[in-house]
Amino acid sequence: MQLDRDLRSHWTLDPKVCFLNHGSYGAVLAEIQEVQQDYRDRLEREPVDFLQRAFASLLDNARARVAQFVGARPGGLVFTDNATAGVNAVLRSLTFEPGDELVCTNHAYNACSNVLHHVANRFGAKVVVAQVPFPLKSEDEVVEAIESVITGRTKIALVDHVTSPTGLVFPIQRIVDSLKERGVDTLVDGAHGPGMLPLNLHRLGAAYYVANGHKWLCAPKAVGFLYVREDRAKGITPVVISHGANSKRAGYTRLQNEFDWPGTIDPTPILCLPESIEALGRLVSGGWPKIYERNHALARHGRDLLCKTLGVETPTPDSMVGNLAAVPLPDLQGIAKPGAFESDPLHNSLRENHGVEIPVVHYPGDPGRLIRLSAHLHNRVEDYETLVKALGEELAANTA
């Protein structure tokens, strides 16, 4: 495939590393690093003036731009450190009865499923895990797996928009609509949503949606958001209770009053988020629609090269590929499988011996482990050619 131009110069990534793991921690645009430093300089020149006089207006402007970008009602959108913080805020605000059921899937992000288990244990509720297969042939398999575990005791479902270990784009509108018909609220883990997929959260209609800004929007670390549907806002409180619990500001929703000031923080990642949206949109002719198109095509291209190298079938339909793609790895006799939270030896070898930064993901059950690539504007076709060459050498060395 052909790409219009090389965009790597807009990041400060190590030129000696083939970086195919944007999905884990993101990478901040060079331009936005400068913007953040400008905000920090302004903050430190006069901290009181910045935080007490200027910040509220700056925060309102940031919220308005982000809400516009994701199709959200500004009154229901508040900023968090990351998506996991948003999941904590929602689940730890809710109450359940013994025997209630809280649903997730076997593709859920570990940190977020931990919150689900913590809350369930507190109330004597039960976590029910829907078994979504991987590889799979259609979106129907996701919907059917989730629907199959819904009962009259199900109170909430934590569902990924894009799964972390397997990189699957779930048919989230179908899932939200199906659960709503059954009287079940959906908490969408949209950690990978903004910047990977076009969003309209008002139309989606999920009770709750959490997201990150540091991943595909390339903003600084420690910025995400929580969006709450208006009829579910009552009782949702931040993990950190602060001044907003009894200090109300005219013109703001209760949600905004309680979340907007958790205490003294570095607010510059939040303030950079709208500027990062604009900066990325300027890099490609055609703006965000073309960015989505380019990155999805590049991820599919890289996946297809991997499948050819590994001699495996394409594990998912194209419609379920965004900026991430995971491919099953063969059983490598010479490389032991690590535990769930250990760094995979193959991952280490690819980085140390070939300069390829890509996650090798532990997957509970067959196929055991996956290799998951990313695609963003700083990536090129040549990156995936470098990957398959390196992987081919590792496979040859460990099957000889």
Structure commentary:
With 400 residues, the protein is of the alpha/beta class. It is built from 13 helices and 12 strands. The strands form 3 sheets. A 7-stranded mixed sheet has the order 2-8-7-6-5-3-4, sandwiched between helices. Strands 9-12-11 form a 3-stranded antiparallel sheet, with helices on one face. It has a two-stranded parallel sheet with strand order 1-10. The radius of gyration is 21 Å and the shape is globular.
Distance between the first and last residues' Cα: 33 Å
Proportion of residues in extended strands = 5-15%
Count of DSSP helices?
13
Number of strands: 12
* Uncertain stretches of 5 or more adjacent residues: none
Shape: globular
Cα-based radius of gyration, to the nearest Å: 21 Å
List the main descriptive attributes of the protein structure presented here:
three-stranded antiparallel sheet, 400 residues, globular, Aspartate Aminotransferase, domain 1, alpha/beta, single chain, Aspartate Aminotransferase, domain 2
Break the fold down into its secondary structure elements and pairings.
Blueprint: E1 18-19, H1 22-25, H2 30-45, H3 47-70, E2 77-80, H4 83-91, E3 101-105, H5 110-123, E4 126-130, H6 140-147, E5 154-160, H7 172-181, E6 185-190, H8 201-204, E7 208-212, E8 224-228, H9 254-259, H10 268-283, H11 287-310, E9 324-328, H12 345-354, E10 356-357, E11 360-362, E12 369-374, H13 381-399
Helix pairs in contact: 2-3, 2-10, 3-10, 4-5, 11-13, 12-13
